[in-house]
Every structure is written in structure tokens, then in C-alpha cells.
Amino acid sequence: MITAVDTSVLVDIFGADPRFGERSAETIRRCLSEGALVACEAVWAETATVFRHESAFLEAMGVLEVAFSPMAKDTALRAAAAWKRYRAQGGKRDRIAADFLIGAHAMAQCDRLLTRDRGFYRNHFHRLKIVDPSQ
After folding, report:
1. Sign of the CA dihedral 119, 48, 14, 22?
2. Is 94's pLDDT higher than 90?
């Protein structure tokens, strides 16, 4: 079982979020017990901004056992198509291409997505299995 992890869950843990931090950590442990945990380029880049130094980020991702999972070309094109549909249907710019990249990566290259943003991903990636630590 390969679980893609979204930025929100990692930030919950690395930022010691008082509301979601512990639940996100517990869910990460459960997902790891069931298989691999991965993050695509967008999640990797977004999460790295939380750290002062790159070495601290890499060490933290290693401790959590989150592997870097590069996106395939067709996955990126799938994300672009989903984002175009969203914009054509009147979607606002509050959703950026990175959200669609994360969803497409999880759908095409993983078995499920660990995220607290379940509404967005369910709306745009209907067949994607979601694990939500806040539930």
C-alpha cells in the first residue's frame, strides 16, 4: 500500500499543530504500518518552506520515512487537465495547480492520499481513496 501525503498533514506534525498534530502523527504511523509513505514534488517543496535549513527538512522527512516520489509526465498532464476543467467551470484562483498535481500524483501513482483537505480532492478526483486524520 502506497500512501501519498499532503502538505497539510506534514505541517500539522512539523509545526506541532495543537488541534491536528497528534492525530496526523497517529495516522502517519498507521499508514506506515500498512506500507510506504511518499510525497510528490509539490508537497516536498511546500513542506520544505516550514524549515529554516534544508538539512533539517531532509532529516525530518527521513525520520517520518516519507520518500520523494517524482511525478510521471502523464500524471502532470492529468493534473493540468483537471485544473483546466476547474477553471472552465468558474473555479477561483484559491486553488492552484499544486493542489491538482498532488491529487493527480496520488491517483495515478499511489493507492490513497493522506490529507485533511478531503472535500477538494473528493470533488476533483472522485476515485481517489482519502485518509483524513481529522476524522
Report:
1. positive
2. no
In tens, the pLDDT along 112-127 reads 999 998 888 888 888 9
Domain extent, residue 58, equals 2-129
Q: Please state the pTM of the whole predicted model.
A: 0.90
Q: Is residue 14 included in any domain, yes or no? A: yes
Q: Does residue 134 lie in a domain region? A: no
The CATH number of the domain holding residue 11 is: 3.40.50.1010
CA-nearest of 11, 32, 19 to 131 is 32
Is 53 domain-assigned?
yes
Displacement of CA 50 from its chain's centroid (Å): 15
pLDDT, residue 93, reads 64
- Residue 112 DSSP SS3: strand
- Interatomic CA distance for residues 121 and 17, integer angstroms: 22
Q: Going by C-beta distance under 8 Å and a sequence separation of 6 or more, which residues neighbour residue 95?
A: 83, 86, 120
